[in-house]
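User: Please fill in residues for this 197-position structure.
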């Protein structure tokens, strides 16, 4: 498999999950502005949407979107995602929440054309979503309870952004969780490989 990524982008979640899963893969960095890969190829020929992550499977098929890629990785490495029962649906529920309620809320923060009011509203919205997640974890070490899952890989990246951008109220329990995850070998390896450590 090959993961197309941009350093520190949401593709970092898939990068971490692939390492945690122990699945063999290659990395190829892209420039999000020029849409060129590090080998000079046109990234739009891989993912016409023009953004990461994109995962090229062994048969050449391409998966995009974090929820799909993380679910795929979880299916290949069931230790990262419950395979059945309500726990499986809770994992999908959490991936969807992180994607739609946290990830998408960062748009005004990253958009240079957004005004200050839009940025402040986004900061407040993200802070309230993170507070919800902190409460939902209820003192558990990971998003889904006692075991690390693909949802933790995704939430880690959102916390990276929240902590780096400032102005976002990150609950103390999530700050501690973020620090713990940074020390896990797979997380540390992915950060190093993306030039972030």
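Assistant: Residues filled in for all 197 positions:
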């Amino acid at each position: 498999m090959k993961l197309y990524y941009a350093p520190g982008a949401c593709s970092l979640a898939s990068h971490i999950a692939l390492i945690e899963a122990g699945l063999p893969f290659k990395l190829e960095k892209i420039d999000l502005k020029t849409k060129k890969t590090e080998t000079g190829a046109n990234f739009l020929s891989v993912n016409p949407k023009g953004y990461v992550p994109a995962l090229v499977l062994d048969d050449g098929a391409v998966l995009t979107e974090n929820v799909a890629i993380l679910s795929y990785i979880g299916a290949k490495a069931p230790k990262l995602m419950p395979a059945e029962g309500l726990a499986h649906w809770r994992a999908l529920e959490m991936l969807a929440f992180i994607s739609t309620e946290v990830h998408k809320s960062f748009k005004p923060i990253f958009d240079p054309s957004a005004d200050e009011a839009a940025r402040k509203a986004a900061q407040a919205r993200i802070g309230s979503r993170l507070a919800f997640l902190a409460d939902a974890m209820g003192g558990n070490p990971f998003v889904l309870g006692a075991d690390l899952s693909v949802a933790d890989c995704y939430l880690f990246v959102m916390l990276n952004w929240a902590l780096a951008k400032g102005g976002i109220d990150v609950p103390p329990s999530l700050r501690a969780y973020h620090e713990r995850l940074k020390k896990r070998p797979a997380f540390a390896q992915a950060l190093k490989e993306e030039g972030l450590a």
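For context: The mean pLDDT is 97.
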